[in-house]
Amino acid sequence: MGDECCNSGCKPCLLDPDDGDIPDLLNYIDGEFTTAASEEWLNDLSPVTGMRIARVPNSNEDDIDAAVTAARSALPEWAAFSREERATWLDKIADALEVRSEEVAQLESLDTGKPITLARSVDAARSIANFRFFAEQVREFTPETFEMTNATNHVIYKPVGVAGLITPWNLPLYLLSWKVAPALAMGNTVVAKPSELTPMTASLLAEIIDDVGLPAGVFNLVHGTGINAGSALTSHHDVDLISFTGGTATGAAVAASAASNFKKLSLELGGKNATIVCADADLDATIPGVVRAGFLNQGQVCLCGSRILIEESIYDEFVGKFLTAVNDMPVGDPSDPDTTLGALVSSDHLEKVMSYITLSQEEGGRILAGGNKPEGIPEQFANGNWLSPTVIEGLSPESRCATEEIFGPVVTLHPFADEEEALAIANATDYGLAGSVWTRDLEKGKRIAEGIDTGMVWVNTWLHRDLRTPFGGVKHSGVGREGGRWSLSFYSHAVNICLYDE
Ligand code: NAP
Q: In terms of CB atoms within 10 Å, which of 82, 271, 389, 440 comes out highest?
């Protein structure tokens, strides 16, 4: 492995002269681990040190084509397995992931900069749970029958075919497994393209799938950029389905590309979610909930409550207590179990988030906390992508900072007079993914929740997930739903067979 920059168009990187042991992650195509056809590499950089921690293949349309060909030829055999047999394969993958769950957490923390405690409790745990959950779902799945006079309708569910799965960097294996498990459960074969910024756990999944002996070609992994590998997958004529999670602008490009041969499409996109705090909320429970909603994963969760709407009669009291809690958050070394806020994923992303903080000043905002690099970051992490949890008030609810997705540890505060105004502010964005309402009055909470134009709303909690429930957004936050039977339905074609019987 050379020590020169790969010159593949990525951000200039710091090369550690002692990095001779860094791994080369490989594609996994037709049951074989391979380099890219181009033999080019991309650098995977640590968010914490800026140093190179791995290289990934800079794949292009040739690699995607090989993966799609493998997935196509594996399809008849895989589709012919019974649901019970496929569920057993998912359980085997879950078992093998569970054995290596600490490794999953360590790799996820290393690759994303997130705290190890979060990587353990959320990323690793949920990746295992996704395989187990869909194994159980597909076992319990009962196709419908509809009786009518002289006939019975039997609905059968066929695999869609070759599924192209594209995932982002914020919850790498969590989101990849959320797609791979139901796709395989319903008899599809898979070509996965994870974010090149966080490729490590996708590679670990390929290793596990190889170890458990899933038939070759059923699961294929192609690393690379969105421009080269991602767009080759969405435009490939022999891919039948695209499930994409990522930014809204990319989602629009994916939708246009996938439309060329009418691929089945699911888009899980960005969010600019409102957290509505009513005057009657129990602040002792609400403040920790609102802090978590604003800053979990450095604010890099599509569901994060980045706009906090506070009833004006408690505005000052809320803001005082909220700032105390925000300023108490330990920021720094992700491997320290006490850390609650790690580094942002990349220097490019940090730059984007910082540009919004600058913009907030031009838009009339006042920074109440953060806005800069946290103090006390050790020397060895000086080149990491650090930002203190940032709180801004005084912005118009229509300002760009209050309506565009920043996707970092930045929240804006907005007072409201009554429910009507709270809903007007909450809905004053093109996004429509999620939201939360905090009140002691559950009737009022439900009423406000019903008025928010999003796909999901929590009352007195946030990110409290039952995997059987529908997950997805409206407006510019997405098309379609994932979760439970919604995923099983997306990853299959329903076919009605009407048996006439005089
Ligand atoms: P992104 O830039 O849109 O990238 C997502 C994935 O798409 C990556 O694998 C990316 O590859 C790939 N890609 C980029 N351009 C492509 C193209 N033209 N064709 C096909 N694939 C392409 O998003 P991100 O920055 O990774 O993730 C953050 C975004 O994801 C935020 O907006 C967040 O809200 C959203 N998100 C939504 C959900 C949800 O469930 N609604 C969940 C998590 C995150 P590269 O990395 O190589 O560019």
A: 271
Q: Please tell me which residue in 40, 196, 268, 363 is annotated as part of the active site.
A: 268
Annotation says 363 is catalytic: no
C-alpha 224 to ligand 1 mean position (Å): 13
Q: Which one of 8, 126, 302 would you pick to mutate in the ligand 1 pocket, going by the greatest count of ligand atoms within 8 A of its CB?
A: 302
Q: What is the CATH number of domain 274-465?
A: 3.40.309.10
- Is 302 a residue of the active site? yes
pTM: 0.96
Give the integer Cα–Cα distance in Å for 170 and 167: 9
Longest alpha-carbon distance in the chain? 83
309-351: pLDDT as tens digits = 999 999 999 999 999 999 999 999 999 999 999 999 999 999 9
> Where, residue-wise, is CATH 3.40.309.10 in the chain?
274-465
What b/e readout covers 334-353, taking b as 16+ CB neighbours within 10 angstroms?
beeeebbbbbbbbbebbeeb
In terms of CATH, what superfamily is 61-269+478-495?
Answer: Aldehyde Dehydrogenase; Chain A, domain 1 (3.40.605.10)
